[in-house]
Design a protein that fits this description.
heterodimer; A: alpha/beta; Rossmann fold; 8 strands; B: Rossmann fold; Rna Polymerase Sigma Factor, Chain: A; 2 domains; globular
């Protein structure tokens, strides 16, 4: 076992939820891995063999310095370079809404990995709905805190929208959770309408339908 | 001082500069010839540890040599990678034992076309066999054997040095713990072969070249070699860097002279580059080494699939390219990364943002230093180096 990674650091709550969905010992690709915090945690806590893709130079340098294998690139451009079935789990954290072509990106993720874990902000949250209804303007909330002309989030979706796309791409949902305003975690499977109304963000693990 | 070294492990106790070794076995070359009595000129920096696990090989580019981190004996300038190698630098000589050798075919002490051909007793000239990148690497592997170094902690190099890094990783995967190919490609492009051919034609068109036998005739094709260097030097820079450095500025004059003097600073700069180059480089070596780069095609050597060259590799890679490098553009590095991913290798990749072109790998590029410091540090921890 490599000694390259430092002892598992405290992980951001949303990343911990993702980490919980990763199988021990898996081969993992984290798309948009930032400074590699999640990959470092997974290597330490779950003995995964991790790889990352990250756009920012600072992020790549920090991740490489941790001993992680990280390639500079972005989800829209570089996923097509990866061979099919190369990974057990592919992670796309809080990024799909910022890609130019979310459908192509999700299709590529499902091709590259046996399982795909995606987290995203839920545009179906009641606060978003209420702001749009009440003010007639694009909602600015705590989770989505930039005005429409500055945000990187060019393809926002609701939980129902996301699951529709996953279904259209031939993926089935293994597991899904939402996080509400107070940080409480809820299982999605039971009550979809509740999840789509009260989840600030959502995390799903998908796999290709056989 | 010149030291013949046949005692494995003696290297660490010897002074690091101006070392030479004669290989005991003939060196088998790709062209089918076995080259006898090969001398390799090399330098070392730092100290080999007791476990012999901290050796780093740096591979030089087309016109480089073994003086990576020492003052060049002819130009008096600092070594070509003196910013990279040294105490506290990315290739930290307080931690690593660094080896830098002149390539076979070179002209700074390693056997090349200026050496005496034992058959004729005269300098080889064009009787020297055509060498390849794989031959250069085979010679380096023989050097390590002679030094008693079984495997390398890391092999690094830029441009042609990066080709050697890739060749090392493909040919001796079990001897390479980490590999850093910088500003390079897994094959030489048509455009790059074309530039090389211009240089070779310039040398061969010089009447003093004498079909390669200028050493016998006491001549020197300096003009041809200088033109080759001038043409090549342009490809190492970028339009933006040339504009920033020189623009259309005039050289020691206030107006154009309506003649063919070096009116412009860029002309004067290139002429200077050409003139100083011929003092430290041999024209035939230039022919042979450019040819070696042209012939390099790692995928072709592995059934046409680059990933095949790295199948099952355990080496960890850090691939580096530069945004303004149009000689070895980022797309070439991405091809390598793609193949390494397909081979499930541990690969990191960065594209450093700079306007200084291909030669950036030799320059003060803080982001490159930061990346490599981090990469080497983490690889050293993984290898259990202190």
């Amino acid at each position: 076992m490599d000694q390259t990674t430092n002892p598992a650091p405290a992980l951001r709550a949303d990343l911990l939820l993702i980490a919980n969905m990763v199988a021990p010992g898996a081969r993992v690709l984290d798309v948009g891995c930032g400074d590699g915090a999640l990959l470092a945690y997974l290597a330490e806590a779950k003995n995964v063999d991790g790889r990352g893709i990250e756009l920012s130079q600072a992020g790549v340098n920090a991740a490489v310095a941790r001993g992680l294998a990280v390639v500079q690139g972005d989800a829209d451009q570089d996923l097509s370079d990866y061979p099919s079935n190369a990974f057990d789990d592919v992670i796309l954290s809080q990024t799909i809404q910022a890609t130019r072509n979310p459908k192509a990106v999700l299709a590529d993720l499902l091709r590259i990995g046996r399982r795909v874990i995606v987290s995203f902000p839920n545009f179906g949250h009641w606060e978003v709905r209420l702001k749009l209804l009440g003010t007639g303007r694009m909602p600015v909330t705590r989770a989505l805190d930039e005005p429409w002309y500055e945000t990187q989030n060019i393809h926002l979706c609701t939980i129902r929208d996301f699951l529709g796309l996953a279904d259209a791409l031939g993926a089935s949902v293994d597991h899904g959770v939402t996080v509400d305003r107070r940080g409480r975690v809820h299982d999605v499977s039971a009550r979809m309408a509740f999840a789509n109304l009260f989840g600030i963000s959502a995390i799903f693990r998908l796999s290709r339908r056989a | 001082m010149t030291v013949d070294l046949h005692v494995p492990g003696a290297a660490a106790r010897l002074p690091g500069s101006d070392l030479k070794i004669v290989l005991e076995q003939p060196l088998p070359l790709d062209c089918g010839v076995a080259l006898g009595a090969v001398t390799i000129a090399y330098e070392t920096y730092g100290t080999l540890n007791a476990a012999r696990s901290n050796a780093v090989l740096v591979c030089h580019a087309l016109t480089g040599d073994q003086h990576a981190a020492s003052t060049h004996p002819i130009t008096g300038k600092p070594g070509w990678w003196s910013l990279m190698i040294g105490p506290g630098r990315p290739i930290d000589t307080d931690r690593y034992f660094v080896i830098s050798a002149n390539v076979v075919g070179g002209c700074m002490g390693t056997t090349g076309p200026t050496a005496l051909d034992p058959k004729s007793g005269k300098p080889y000239g064009l009787a020297f066999p055509v060498i390849t990148i794989a031959d250069m690497v085979r010679a380096q592997a023989a050097l390590l054997d002679a030094l008693g170094i079984a495997d390398l902690f890391c092999v690094l190099g830029g441009s042609m040095g990066g080709m050697q890094v890739l060749q090392w990783a493909a040919a001796y995967p079990e001897r390479v713990f980490a590999a850093v190919p910088i500003a390079t490609a897994a094959r030489h492009s048509a455009q790059n072969i074309a530039f090389h051919e211009v240089g070779r034609q310039a040398i061969q068109a010089d009447p003093e070249w004498r079909d390669g036998d200028y050493l016998l005739h006491g001549t020197n094709p300096k003009k041809g070699l200088a033109v080759a260097r001038m043409a090549a030097h342009i490809t190492y820079l970028s339009e933006a860097a040339l504009h920033r450095k020189f623009g259309r500025n005039l050289q020691d004059r206030t107006r154009i002279t309506y003649g063919f003097d070096a009116d412009f600073q860029i002309e004067s700069y290139l002429r200077h580059q050409g003139l100083t180059f011929v003092d430290r480089f041999d024209a035939n070596s230039y022919l042979y080494i450019t040819r070696a780069m042209d012939y390099f095609d790692l995928a072709a050597d592995h059934g046409g699939t680059l990933a095949q060259a790295f199948q099952g590799t355990k080496t960890r890679f850090c691939v580096v390219s530069f945004t303004s490098d149009w000689l070895f553009p980022t797309s070439e590095s991405r091809t390598v990364v793609h193949a390494l991913n397909a081979a499930a290798a541990k690969v990191s990749f960065v594209e450093i943002e700079t306007d200084r072109g291909h030669d950036s790998f030799l320059l003060n590029e803080p982001e490159m230093f930061a990346t490599l410091t981090g990469f080497l540090g983490s690889a050293a921890r993984a290898r259990g180096l202190s």
